[in-house]
Amino acid sequence: MYKTFSMELAGRTLSVDVGRVAAQANGAAFMHYGDTTVLSTATASEKPREGIDFFPLSVEYEEKLYSVGKIPGGFNKREGKASENSVLTSRVIDRPMRPLFPKDYRNDVTLNNLVLSVDPACRPELVAMLGSAIATSISDIPFAGPCAMTQVGLIDGEFVLNPSQEQWKNGDLNLTVASTSEKVIMIEAGANEIPEAKMIEAIYMAHEVNQSIIAFINQIVAEVGKAKHEYTSCAVPEELFAAIKEIIPPEEMEEAVFTDVKQVREENIRKITERLEEAFADKEEWLPVLGEAIYQYQKKTVRKMILKDHKRPDGRAITQIRPLAAEIDIIPRVHGSGMFTRGQTQICTITTLAPLSEMQRIDGLDENEVNKRYMHHYNFPSYSVGETKPSRGPGRREIGHGALAERALIPVLPSEDEFPYAIRTVSETFESNGSTSQASICASTLSLMAAGVPIKKQVAGISCGLVTGDTDDDYIVLTDIQGLEDFFGDMDFKVAGTHDGITAIQMDIKIHGLTRPIVEEAIAKTKEAREYIMNEIMTPCIAAPRAEVGQFAPKIISVQIDPEKIGDVVGQRGKTINEIIARTGVKIDITDDGKVSVCGTDKEMMDKAVEMVKIITTDFQEGQIFKGTVVSIKEFGAFIEFAPGKEGMVHISKIAKERINRVEDVLTLGEQVTVVCLGKDKMGRISFSMKDVAQV
């Protein structure tokens, strides 16, 4: 016997079946929102994982193409590795929920979301987010929830709660807000230059809706929730802290961590660790948690100095940004490059331009195949933080950072009509000490402008941190956090935008939510900081996009043809278009509405290809002059190819002004000639004359 719970949410019914499926999971919620159906489960191991100093949480979002009536592409017709959308959705679920589990909990926990059916009016990502919160809340897994999530779109200036797939894709705002019963706990946004005040309004509209969802979840928990299980705490013993402080007094720890050189700080901590390992060599029960104890000691030291003394590890003022530098054209032969440095964070972004045919095609949970014209990829090699490990390709963090930068820059990109290129930017992390994702936004803006991409405005990004005390009023917001302040602080609030508004937000926190004053202060400080970055650092480096793409970038010429003549250009089985490409070395894209884009680096060959297309698609009229090649000689005349796949005939009587007996006396195969069109003969063939036009 199972129970069903339902509520009205943004004009649609959200219903949850508990006890219907997946009964062996610690918690399971069979979610329905419209026709979108998602099974969300929460499971935990019975015992803690040994030898770790973190909470092992895994969040999975599984896209099944049967949910939209598709069979996967590829050879084996089976879903492969997680898509980029799956990874990003998993991260959005993970970020607000992770802080709500006990900090000393070491049992493995997996939150799995299986997308079974997709209704385009009800986004499955939202349903999975709510399902994970419900499944965990009703389970016996320790959890300080519930939490809830709401999405907000902006259509024609009006906010839309939990928008449809179409509204989400075409609106001016993609905002996801997670809340507890008291505070905002996560913000993720992509926006078309939304003013700060409008963004805050949207955030707290979502927060209000979240309160009704939390009341709904509390009702479910009251009826079917399990008692939370006991667990083995992995907290550091207080007597160990006391023993450490006797050997390393607070003043010595302050001196060790308060330096603006990361390597010096790490060396100081290494020496302290060696001293403590030697001192506690006979305390076998302490050694496994000694590393965590030293980490927490550093954390308490840094937090106390920032919050009480307003002293930052590198000596900066609370609102001061680290030294900045911007450069362009540091990489030869690429289509565009820009490097942005902020303290010990350094990103180089390379831009590559290509024909629109090289857009990324994604087979996802959408009615149609999705095409991505702009792709931003972010790489984070181990050398950027002075470590050594083999590269295994991009992880979830790299995918998330790349998507954040991509979101931030899309609003300022030119349209396909204005700039008919596919665009890829790759951000290489040369050095990292905090907020590389925001540095990659600045570097990408420089790189795009250097490449001649006519972006509408500059975009800059910056991150704010937070240290809180014992009360809601006891806090301090830090501008431009470095790695240490991120590790030991409570918040990483990233905001990117132009002079006119916000284009992206990503907020991560480690505490149980933020008050409205903190959110407003963080948004205000990031605006002030990004204005400074654009005005004082980026504009002096490059003030506007270059007028033309670079020497090594492909050039594109676009012409419009009658859509009914597309078949003439393509030819049977692509014969004609492939012949044009073979003769000129260009790339050709044709859209369904008849737009032909010719891409190449040799202007002469591009013009030749365009001329061929125009000839093929022109209705032949008497008097038109063409240049062509003799491709066949007969007794009665010669056939002249004047464009790939297009031939006309010159009768023997029209070859020369004087009478000739044999065509071969005047023409040879492969000879280039100039002809004038006489119209069509009785057989419908194009008829040419050579004698009525001067031969050049």
UniProtKB/TrEMBL annotation:
One GO biological process term: RNA processing
InterPro entries xref list: ExoRNase_PH_dom1 (IPR001247), ExoRNase_PH_dom2 (IPR015847), ExoRNase_PH_dom2_sf (IPR036345), KH_dom (IPR004087), KH_dom_type_1 (IPR004088), KH_dom_type_1_sf (IPR036612), KIX_dom (IPR003101), NA-bd_OB-fold (IPR012340)
Superkingdom of origin: Bacteria
PROSITE patterns recorded: KH_TYPE_1, KIX, S1
Span of domain S1 motif: 623-691
Cofactor annotation: Mg(2+)
GO CC annotation: cytosol
Reaction equation(s) it catalyzes: RNA(n+1) + phosphate = RNA(n) + a ribonucleoside 5'-diphosphate
GO MF annotations in UniProt: 3'-5'-RNA exonuclease activity; magnesium ion binding; polyribonucleotide nucleotidyltransferase activity; RNA binding; transcription coregulator activity
EC number: 2.7.7.8
Top-level class of the enzyme under EC nomenclature: transferase
Domain KIX: 223-302
Amino-acid positions noted as binding Mg(2+) in the UniProt annotation, renumbered to this chain: D486, D492
Subcellular location(s) per record: Cytoplasm
Family: Belongs to the polyribonucleotide nucleotidyltransferase family.
Cited function: Involved in mRNA degradation. Catalyzes the phosphorolysis of single-stranded polyribonucleotides processively in the 3'- to 5'-direction.
Protein name: Polyribonucleotide nucleotidyltransferase
